[in-house]
Amino acid sequence: MKVLSVTSELYPLIKTGGLADVAGALPLALQHLGVETKTLLPGYPTVLAAVGKTRKLMDLDLLGEQASLLAVKHHGLDILLLHAPTLYDRAGGPYLDTDNRDYPDNWKRFAALSLAGARIAAGLLPDWQPDLVHGHDWQAALTPAYMRYGEALEIPNLMTIHNIAFQGVFGSEIFGELGLPSHAFHEAFEFYGRLSFLKAGLNTTHAITTVSPSYAEEILSSEFGMGLDGVIASRAGDLYGIVNGIDATIWDPSSDVLIAGNYTGSSLKKRVKNREALVSRFNLADDGGPIYCVVSRLTWQKGMDVLVGIIDQLVADGAMLVVLGSGDGPLEGAFLDAAARHSGRVSVTIGYDEPLSHLIQAGSDAILIPSRFEPCGLTQLYGLRYGCVPVVARTGGLKDTVIDANEAALAANVATGIHITPMSQEGLIQALRRANRLFHAGKPWSQMQKNGMKSDVSWGRSAANYLDLYERLLLKGQ
User: What sequence ranges are listed for the domain Glycosyl transferase family (predicted)?
Assistant: First the structure.
């Protein structure tokens, strides 16, 4: 089976969040199941520099912009790079300029990516045509729209929603620049007087997946559907929730070279080397209490305003906190203020550092994820893998992947973490106090760590679910 994946991010080349991890890991997992994937990715400057020598396949005109399609293999991935300097040669990130503002032409940058994907689906490459196209998030959502309205009507395709809060909403005045028939606007695009790339993708694709079963249910509601719940409900029969996995070869505490000491579930005592390294790196005044960590975007969605409001209580209850992340300026400032108030007990690093995140997971006792909504989440999966007990909000993929340490789960020796209920400051304080009690009890905590480390968080089962869906779409299209 030949699959074209269309994405704006791809680990290890370009990453702002979990989308990159999924887009990078899923093709490798599917490869073992007989699926050949080519991934179409914008040719950002950092990507071109990282991959080195490429092979030019052809030149393209995309919405009036000159582009080239390049081929390269990198870290086991078969990649097609859309090299379009006028669209992607920017000093900032993939979506934001150096002042953290959206590029004003993001609509054209990702419409061009989608159009290239649709043309590849239609047979643009002389020696390779996909059997199926898999687009990721709003940046690739016009791929099925271009396919529906003329490029490759007969090729099955699906869209994955990684976070429905990001929808690619633009002014309706740009519609005429997309090269689509006028009737497509009201049929697929119109969104409260504007237009939404994600809505267009959801209306024109053959199947919709999202990254956990619970999130698939949640986005049918007005609370979580972000204005698209009606569209989702109209496609409910084509909606599938498939939980994400992680690359268990990269995230493996028994062999990870980025941590201070390797360990397994049966040698948890060796984990202490990582705690010691963490304490030393962040100058923590370790008195034997639990070390909580956060590796996250510092945003409202992630519940960081709730967490920052209870840090004084967290410290008063005898715990320490290590934070790695960036996001909203006021929240960054509030966390830095907390670190200044609690020197030796709270450490905050603004930014993202992939190697450091490995040490934080290996050295902390628990990871805090108080998200208001969470499509899947990957940091709790890393936490499970590393014996860093997840303390999570009861929502989306967090609920699907972490078993709460309630009385029955503890008695049955199946608990892997702690659920925060309700998701409020008081609910978070109570969850942390439960965690403190279990941590100091010793055996129940180590049992949770071992249970988590035995959890199958790899891509194996999830990749098989994707393959099953691919096969059903291919059969339906015959």
Answer: 283-434
